[in-house]
């Protein structure tokens, strides 16, 4: 039968701390006091870390003012630098790979609580029962090899950051980041891809003397959409999604009219119409275009924009919710039946 501690590490909600966890926390607090005094040698610091952590690799160090909870849930690889003022709330496992650079003031949080206050706090809590009056669960954090995490970044429960990633300073990482990515922001999002660290950066020549390994980041420039009412569609995206538009292009020979809509630095949307358009049979499940997805920055903004569109008479195909793959999103039906996904 699993212990409360084992259930907690598996991600179950708990409101009790087992004796072994309390002992681990108390032991770690004493070691941290000694570690953070500032008047001990590097060898002694490394010895304290070996006692405190699950494991620590060669040529790995942690700066001053380090804070953690259990200690034994932290596993650090080789040639890894954890800079000053780092917080690792390791209620669950924090595994950090080799050759990882962690700038000052980075925070790792493995614990989380129910969003619903009725679930978060224990009803009819009995102080004498030795239990906590609130519920907590924990999810592990995994950082791959060759990762650089910028100053002040916050890594939230359950996140995995793949190999060869760069996380921008001040980012709030609430979802996993795939390998070979530069990601930044709140919430943190991938902004470009990198060449895998294991690949050679020396170009290999083919039999024509040109390079086969010159790699460039390829991005979607724009997506095109045929519509019947060009002006109505343009105004929809300007009004609700802050689009900007160029001047209309008109080819008098073919009758083609287009606008190119821009959304900051993101991919563009070209809307087009022409006289000979035919209607496409619409079914819920078919190949081809399905929806456009717009990120609005937070769950609150998802809720607000969805409510605004609904109030203005647009059909909400699905209300804001957390999907099975962890995204908070809604879906509305835009002019001419096009599906627009709104995500945080």
Structure notes:
- It is built from 6 helices and 28 strands.
- With 344 residues, the protein is an alpha/beta fold.
- The strands form 6 sheets. The chain has a 7-stranded mixed sheet, with no helix packed on it. Strands 1-4-7-12-15 form a 5-stranded parallel sheet, covered by helices on one side.
- Strand 27 (328-333) and strand 28 form a beta hairpin.
- Helix 2 packs antiparallel against helix 3 (42-52).
- The model is unreliable at 199-205 and 208-216 (pLDDT under 50).
Radius of gyration: 26 Å
Low-confidence stretches: 199-205, 208-216
Strand content: 25-35%
Order of strands, widest sheet? 2-5-8-13-16-18-19
How widely separated are the two ends?
40 Å
Helical fraction equals 10-25%
Number of strands: 28
Q: Main β-sheet: number of strands, strand sense, barrel status?
A: 7 strands, mixed
Which whole number gives the mean pLDDT?
A: 86
User: Structural class given helices, strands, pairing?
Assistant: alpha/beta
Number of helices: 6
Shape: elongated
């Amino acid at each position: 039968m699993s212990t409360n501690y084992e259930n907690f590490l598996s991600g179950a909600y708990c409101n009790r701390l087992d004796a072994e966890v309390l002992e681990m926390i108390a032991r770690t607090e004493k070691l941290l006091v000694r570690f953070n005094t500032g008047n001990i040698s590097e060898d002694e610091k490394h010895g304290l870390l070996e006692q405190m952590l699950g494991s620590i690799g060669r040529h790995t160090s942690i700066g001053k003012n380090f804070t953690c909870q259990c200690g034994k849930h932290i596993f650090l690889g080789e040639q890894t630098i954890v800079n000053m003022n780092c917080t690792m709330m390791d209620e669950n496992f924090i595994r950090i790979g080799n050759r990882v650079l962690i700038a000052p003031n980075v925070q790792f949080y493995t614990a989380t609580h129910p969003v619903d206050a009725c679930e978060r706090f224990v009803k009819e809590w009995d102080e004498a029962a030795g239990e906590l009056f609130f519920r907590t669960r924990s999810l592990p954090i995994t950082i791959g090899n060759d990762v650089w995490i910028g100053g002040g970044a916050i890594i939230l429960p359950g996140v995995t950051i793949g190999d060869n990633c760069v996380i921008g300073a001040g980012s709030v990482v609430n979802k996993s980041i795939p390998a070979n990515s530069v990601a930044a922001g709140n919430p943190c999002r991938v902004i470009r891809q990198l060449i895998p660290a294991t690949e050679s950066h020396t170009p290999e020549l083919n039999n024509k003397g040109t390079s086969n390994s010159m790699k460039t980041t390829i991005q979607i420039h724009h997506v095109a959409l045929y519509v019947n009412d060009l002006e109505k569609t343009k105004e929809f995206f300007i009004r609700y999604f802050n689009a900007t538009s160029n001047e209309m292009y008109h080819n008098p020979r073919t009758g083609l009219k287009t606008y190119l809509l821009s959304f900051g630095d993101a991919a563009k949307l070209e809307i087009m119409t022409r006289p000979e358009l035919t209607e496409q049979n619409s079914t819920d499940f078919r190949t081809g275009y399905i929806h456009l997805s717009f990120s609005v920055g937070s769950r609150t903004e998802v809720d607000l924009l969805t409510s605004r569109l609904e109030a203005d008479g647009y059909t909400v195909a699905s209300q804001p919710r957390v999907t099975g793959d962890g995204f908070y999103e809604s879906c509305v039906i835009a002019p001419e039946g096009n599906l627009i996904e709104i995500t945080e």
